[in-house]
Structure prediction request, 123 residues.
Amino acid sequence: VQLQASGGGLVQTGTSLRLSCAASGLSFRRYTTAWFRRAPGKEHEFVSVISWTGDTAYSDSVKGRFAISRDNAKNTVFLQMNSLKPDDSADYYCAVTKTIWGRARSESEYLYWGQGTQVTVSS
Prediction:
């Protein structure tokens, strides 16, 4: 199983980025997939999650600005990030789990992780 995250970059405050997470060896349709992020010196932080049924959830810090989606045909999960702020700067990781929805914000529940893609938002 491999998860490949991409789409990060250096952008200015208020702009947008779309992250992608492509999978090989598993089908996202059978997993709950989340995005976490880790800023330098900080712990992993839950960002967003999409269940295998399509339910979505977001952290309070990104709600209304970020949108998670899935393209089953491409076996790819996306994170559309709008109105970016310097506080959004971090390495972003995608991960998959088969845990229950109520535990889907907990990084310890995740089985496979991508390698991370760096997002830097300049002020």
Summary: The first strand starts at residue 2 and ends at 6. The CA atoms of residues 93 and 116 lie 4 Å apart.
